[in-house]
């Protein structure tokens, strides 16, 4: 094997770091759209972040403690499962936006803070914007953020699986 992708797949620690950094970049992008561009996330948007937060944590632990091949394989399996979950959530959310799947009944975005009294409650009711899971807040080349998350997560899933295949090598041969 030669070239950058081959070298990356040959070193499980580098691949683990790449997947963690990619998850960190996806989370940073989500926060950018929310805090800078003021696109409020819906319930499904927030749920799609969870596998990436977990991947960042798993990556950190793996880079600190996964010195043996067994622990690196375990980390890659964990990352592959998280990216499979993230891909599924992204496909589901995209399907909800396109009307292919029914969305959750309680899709209303981030919860509002508790009102201190009736006056505050009335003000919140007038200013609170409910975010629907069926409406894409932003699209690029026809794909919403959920669609882009599904594609990115699928790419990371494939990378983790190829890294696992390369790390395990031959059936019956256990890594040292």
What is this entry, summarized?
This protein is mainly α.
Which labels suit this protein?
mainly alpha; 6 helices; 67% helix
Task: Describe the 3D structure.
By secondary structure, this protein is mainly α. 67% of the residues lie in helices and 2% in strands. A two-stranded antiparallel ribbon has the order 1-2. The chain is elongated, with a radius of gyration of 20 Å.
Blueprint of the fold:
Elements: H1 4-10, H2 12-35, H3 43-65, H4 69-98, H5 118-127, E1 139-140, E2 143-144, H6 145-168
Antiparallel strand pairs: 1-2
Mean pLDDT across the residues is: 84
Output the strand order for the largest sheet.
Answer: 1-2
Distance between the termini: 20 Å
Shape field: elongated
Largest sheet: 2 strands, antiparallel
Summed up, the helix count is 6
Percentage of residues in helical conformation: 55-70%
- Give the topology string: H per helix, E per strand: HHHHHEEH
Percent of residues in beta strands?
under 5%
Going by helix content, strand content and strand pairing, the class is: mainly alpha
Number of strands: 2
Weakly predicted, low-confidence segments: none
* Rg, Cα atoms, Å: 20 Å
């Amino acid at each position: 094997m030669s070239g950058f992708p081959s070298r990356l797949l040959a070193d499980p620690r580098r691949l683990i770091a790449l997947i963690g950094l990619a998850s960190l970049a996806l989370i940073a992008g989500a926060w950018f759209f929310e805090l800078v561009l003021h696109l409020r996330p819906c319930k499904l948007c927030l749920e799609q972040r969870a596998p990436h937060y977990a991947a960042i944590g798993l990556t950190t632990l793996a880079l600190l403690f996964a010195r043996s091949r067994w622990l690196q394989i375990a980390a890659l399996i964990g990352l592959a499962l998280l990216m499979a979950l993230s891909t599924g959530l992204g496909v589901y959310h995209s399907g909800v936006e396109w009307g292919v799947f029914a969305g959750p009944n309680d899709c209303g975005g981030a919860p509002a803070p508790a009102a201190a009294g009736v006056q505050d409650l009335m003000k919140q009711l007038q200013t609170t914007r409910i975010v629907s899971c069926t409406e894409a807040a932003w699209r690029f080349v026809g794909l919403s953020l959920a669609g882009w998350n599904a594609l990115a997560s699928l790419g990371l899933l494939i990378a983790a699986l190829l890294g696992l295949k390369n790390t395990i090598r031959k059936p019956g041969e256990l890594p040292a």
